[in-house]
Amino acid sequence: MAEESGLEKTEPASSRRLEQAREEGDVPRSRELGTCTLLLAAGAGLWLTGDNLVAHLRLMLATSMHFDRSLAFDLGRLTTIQGEQVLQLLIALAPLGGILIVTALITPALIGGWLFSIQAIAPNFERMDPMAGLGRMISMRSLVELGKAVGKALIVGFVAYRVMLNNYDAILGLMSEPSKQGLAHLGHLVAMCFISIASGLVVIMAIDVPFQLRSYANKLKMTRQEVIQEAKESNGNPQIKAKIRSQQREMARRRMMSKIPTADVVITNPTHYAVALKYTEGGMNAPVVVAKGSDLVAARIRELAAEHHIPLMEAPPLARALYAHAELNSQIPEALYTAVAEVLAYVFQLRAYKVNGGMAPTRPEDIPVPEELDPTSLVAIHLQQAKMTESFDG
Q1: What is the pLDDT of residues 187-237, one digit of tens each?
Q2: Burial 219-254 (b: 16+ CB within 10 A, else e)
Q3: Which of 116-125, 172-181, 217-226 has the highest mean pLDDT?
Q4: In sequence order, which residues have a C-beta less than 8 Å from that of residue 85 and are 6 or more positions away?
């Protein structure tokens, strides 16, 4: 049962699944929405531009009925006149065409949005499979399309019948009206009938749009196993990520160890912690931590310091404070300036003594470290407990 439920498409499509479908040109579309909006726009365009269109057509008809005998012997002039008539026809149809073009561009944004995909127009020989085509013909989708076609025929037929019945007297009265007035009246009747019939398709559109959205969502649903697999692909395999993090830590450790020969002093705990400091007078505002570590890493820092003759300074409180509060490759905290200054002063004096001789410097003892910076002090422990209590209460 667990395996069967894992294979059922019960999970909604993820954002990545929707993005992949969009890249493949698969977005929700409603043909009825496009058809309905274009027909309504055409009807509205005829209603708004009908008088101008009829006037242009009447003028073109009158011009075409006038024929000069000399045109029969002047092919160039005849061609020019015909070109002018075609241009006048395009000018007459331009407002209606502009309305239809704008509507055709806006309609896709209402459902699915604008989309251009190369994959959608690429050849797909699977679509030529006759068995697959037969399956599509007898699918639920084809039955729905058949139902929509029958519904459209019934609705359009009923609306057309009612419109013609309601305007029966006006249609018959066109024969008794003057030609100019009759043509204008006819244009209004045609536009009104067209809009009324197209409005009947709104019912089909109102049903089809939610149906297409729901069908699209169901088609892209995912099984629970697909969701898990996608999460692994997106976030990465935990074992691989752990291995990568381990390698990154190892590389960072190697870079850190390579900087130990440049240090001026290594402050130790003496065994649990080791912090290597570097200070260049005039080039740094404060000493910088070039390496730090605990236990095995601290032991390795001490070994490298001994190999490169870097002074080792045993100062447990200061080593703990630096390890806890100083960031790698960053300057030490301001509160530790005084303590570290004592250490560096001794180191520099010791370096000068080894070179020039003289009186040996006195090794500093009991280096002062603020209690709140020493992790093992009671003050630091109380402060940590207070922070934990505040965060818990918050």
Answers
A1: 777 777 777 877 778 888 888 888 888 888 888 888 888 877 777 766 666
A2: ebebeeebbeebeeeeeeeeeeeeeeeeeeeeeeee
A3: 217-226
A4: 60, 63, 64
